């Protein structure tokens, strides 16, 4: 375990980098759009770890309302501004929350995306609780998409052996050159599959694309 | 708001509105009677981080 791997610290990092993140992370991910396209229409979809909200407009095409959740208040402000600019404010509910202690009623979600966020939770127990709760929030037979960073990426070459538990601090470089460390838990494919299965969600398609694993999950 | 509950004990929350703008609740509280904790709504965004979030 690396030092400083608390959620509140990671949330503070996202507060500090929110505006720069928004400048540099404009494009939605093709893998996410393909998944969203495959969804049936629903009343409520959730974007867990919504960041700057780049996937929200696509979810909004499938859902009456989108619940946009993040643990960084500054990131949520940026997402709200972006959603405003495309005229979707009326369709989006923003929520500051911890994805390992989500404050939702059971069976309310018709689907969710959880893109590049689960890997910021510091412990296996918190990652498991997060997915277990999402299983309960999903309506029966509904789908979610989870993406996490893979351990064996070229950028971490030489590190993969050193970082045996997958926990690592990855610096975010600000425009002035200042580097701010963010906590990640890097996944092996079998670890992601096992985590999802332990949560009680069924694993559908699980594939590697670029430096990420993408897992489609289904509630029972 | 009826999809939300307390992040700690899952109890239903009681909404107290301080300021509204059309449909949006700009400022207010979501109160958990069991935890005796008021979760703030500020700038239209409920803060439902657990009180011991760290």
Let me know the number of strands of chain A.
9
Helix tally of chain B? 0
Strand order of the largest sheet of chain B: 1-2-3-4
N→C terminal distance of chain A: 33 Å
Largest beta-sheet characterization of chain A: 7 strands, mixed
Largest sheet of chain B: 4 strands, antiparallel
Let me know the average pLDDT of chain A: 95
Q: How many domain units of chain A?
A: 1
What global shape of chain A is seen? globular
Strand percentage of chain B, roughly?
Answer: over 45%
Name the poorly predicted regions of chain B.
none
- Principal-axes geometry of chain B comes out as globular
Textual characterization of the structure:
The complex is a heterodimer of chains A (220) and B (54). Chain A is of the alpha/beta class and 220 residues long. Chain A has a single domain, classed as 3-Layer(aba) Sandwich (Rossmann fold). Chain A has six helices and nine strands, in the order H-H-E-H-E-H-E-E-H-E-E-E-H-E-E. Chain A has a seven-stranded mixed β-sheet with strand order 3-2-1-4-5-9-8, sandwiched between helices. In chain A, strands 6-7 form a two-stranded antiparallel ribbon. In chain A, strand 6 and strand 7 form a beta hairpin. The radius of gyration of chain A is 16 Å and the shape is globular. Chain B has 54 residues and is mainly beta. Chain B contains no helices and four strands. In chain B, strands 1-2-3-4 form a four-stranded antiparallel β-sheet, with no helix packed on it. Chain B is globular, with a radius of gyration of 11 Å. Chain B starts with 13 loop residues before the first strand and ends in an 8-residue tail after the last strand. In chain B, 28% of the residues are buried. At the A-B interface, helix 4 and strand 3 of A face strand 4 of B.
